């Protein structure tokens, strides 16, 4: 299960376009991608403050909170067959033509004062 969840995260590294794009915003778009481990395509739907991924027949496989700020998207799963509730994924994204690509975006950790 963890391996498949990790694969679902990896799938966001290269996603093919499936919906219209308005002024480079990801909000209210849908993106289709193929997952080798499932031997099937999934569709990543991005709303205003949430996202969900479905099979091509419409079955929801994961629901997430989704925040977009400039070129960064933050995703935290809260429900679904392949959900990863342990943390928040932070990704930088680029839209080139009809292709959406994600890359990991490590967040620097600020340390408090030493005692």
Q: Describe it for me?
A:
9% of the residues lie in helices and 49% in strands. Residues 9-23 have low confidence and may be disordered. It has 1 helix and 8 strands; from the N terminus they run αββββββββ.
Give descriptors for this structure.
single chain, 115 residues, mainly beta, 8-stranded antiparallel β-barrel, 8 strands, 49% strand, globular
Please summarize what this structure is:
By secondary structure, the protein is mainly beta. Helices cover 9% and strands 49% of the residues.
- The gross shape turns out to be globular
Mean pLDDT: 78
Structural class: mainly beta
The low-confidence runs, each spanning 5 or more residues with pLDDT under 50, are 9-23
Write out the strand line-up for the largest beta sheet, numbering strands in chain order: 1-2-3-4-5-6-7-8
Helix content: under 10%
Gyration radius, rounded: 15 Å
| Helix and strand element order | HEEEEEEEE
Percent of residues in beta strands: over 45%
Layout of helices and strands:
Elements: H1 2-11, E1 15-17, E2 29-35, E3 40-46, E4 50-55, E5 60-69, E6 72-80, E7 89-96, E8 99-104
């Amino acid at each position: 299960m963890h391996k498949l969840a990790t694969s679902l995260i990896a799938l966001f590294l290269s996603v093919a376009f499936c919906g219209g794009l308005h002024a480079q915003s990801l909000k209210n778009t849908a993106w289709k991608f193929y997952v080798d481990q499932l031997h099937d395509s999934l569709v990543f739907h991005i709303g205003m403050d949430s996202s969900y991924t479905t099979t091509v027949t419409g079955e929801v496989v994961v629901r997430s909170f989704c925040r977009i700020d400039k070129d960064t998207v933050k995703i935290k799963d809260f429900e679904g067959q392949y959900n990863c509730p342990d943390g928040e994924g932070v990704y930088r994204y680029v839209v080139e033509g009809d292709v959406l690509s994600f890359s990991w975006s490590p967040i620097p950790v600020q340390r408090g004062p030493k005692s």
